[in-house]
Amino acid sequence: MTDADTLAPPTAPGSPPRWAPITAVALATFTVVSAEMMPVGLLTPVSKTLGVSDGVTGLSLTITGLLAAALSPFVPALIGLRDRKHVLVAFMLLLSLANALTALAPDYPVLAVGRVLLGLAMGVVWGITAGLGPRLADGPRIALATTLIFSGVSIASVLGVPLGTYLAALLGWRSAFWALALLGAVSAAVLARTLPALPVHERGRLDRIADALHSRGVAAGLAVTALVVLGHFTGYTYVRPVLELDAGLSSGVIAACLLVYGLAGVAGNFTLGPAAGRRPKAAVTTALAGVALATALLPLLTGSVVAVLIALVVWGASYGGVSISTQTWVRIADPTRIEASAALWAGVFNASIALGSFAGGLVVDRAGTHAVLLTASLITAAGLLLAAVTRPRR
User: Fold this and answer.
1) How many CB atoms lie within 10 A of CB 54?
2) How many CB atoms lie within 10 A of CB 289?
3) Domains of the chain from N-terminus onward
4) Alpha-carbon torsion 185, 186, 187, 189, what sign?
5) Is the pTM of this model over 0.90?
6) 39 Cβ contact partners less than 8 Å away, ≥ 6 residues apart
């Protein structure tokens, strides 16, 4: 029996999609990504308060990413026959608790425990939400539903971390995590109120992971995902030093450039998302080509603020469509195992984030900022080549 048989669709074929639960899931993805990335904007104040280095504090981001990556592929098997709605609500509450513990942390070990709990919550939430589009909509509306769900990721990049950083500047870094704890509780309540029951009729099994990987389309989609996310985070993690040292931009101009980048990412999500539902391969190759081109050209354009801004817009718009287009590729490649392949995709995505940041650090320390962007471009170009010579198989 396949996932198509075991996942009971709450929306009857031909009926209108349920936009309230779809929006609720988007709020959950926004909350998860904001919580994961918040230490990026708060490294210095957290380090000073807890008496550790910036590097040690930065490990709190690695902890969550690696745990989520390790857990996501096994979520369907671990949660068995439990209603996906109840599991999602419970782990959003765990996410809220994790952020509250981080806000209360008197020292780094307690903060690390909070981030471990956050990683566990993230792994389960990503393992479920990545495949919810087809369960909350049907037919041609699946692409739009999935686009809306993943819009939470793009919007978190634009609003989540900047708002948390601003709040921390006014009230201290702990206030940002208290806000995330409150947002997690609100998200859980909204999910409980709006999500329909999401039952399954057969216990998830670990062998479904291997079964999904036997599909060439799924395996290709996962490899493409790994390469583009690895390439992106190899470069983007260190984009600020590029803008500051090479382009000579002030902190205010850099903030404006990154805001424009984020807004372009939201636009890319809503542009490439619907396109991915119709032509997934074209959407994926377009997204990867944009990321590869922008990261290759940015080091050559640092003499002009306008040119830098254009490169960032191309990069942001292209990467904004990566999540939805690659996830759609994997879903279409094996529609009989949607939950298993979506969980695998979430694990690969999170692992590539952690590895990309780590790889970028190694390159930038040894060869500088130009080399790190060139490396990012080459990795992404490898993903583009793979996407060009493969395809999702229906």
Assistant:
1) 11
2) 17
3) 3-194 (1.20.1250.20), 207-389 (1.20.1250.20)
4) positive
5) no
6) 46, 57, 58, 60, 61
DSSP bridge pairs for 7: 200
Single-letter amino acid, residue 116:
V
* CA 29 vs CA 56, 65, 152: distances in Å: 26, 14, 5
Task: Locate all alpha helices (DSSP H) within the chain, ordered by sequence.
Answer: 3-6, 19-50, 54-71, 75-79, 84-104, 108-129, 133-136, 141-155, 161-171, 173-194, 207-213, 216-236, 239-241, 251-278, 280-297, 305-320, 322-333, 338-367, 369-389
pLDDT tens-digit profile of 135-167? 888 766 787 888 888 788 878 877 787 788 788
Nearest by Cα to 172 from 255, 251, 252, 102: 102
For residue 245, report the phi and psi dihedrals to the nearest 5 degrees.
-90, -45
pLDDT at 98 over 90: yes
Give the single-character DSSP code of 139. Answer: T
The CA distances from residue 95 to 43, 88, 346, in Å, are 20, 10, 17
Q: Are 367 and 82 in contact (CB under 8 A)?
A: no
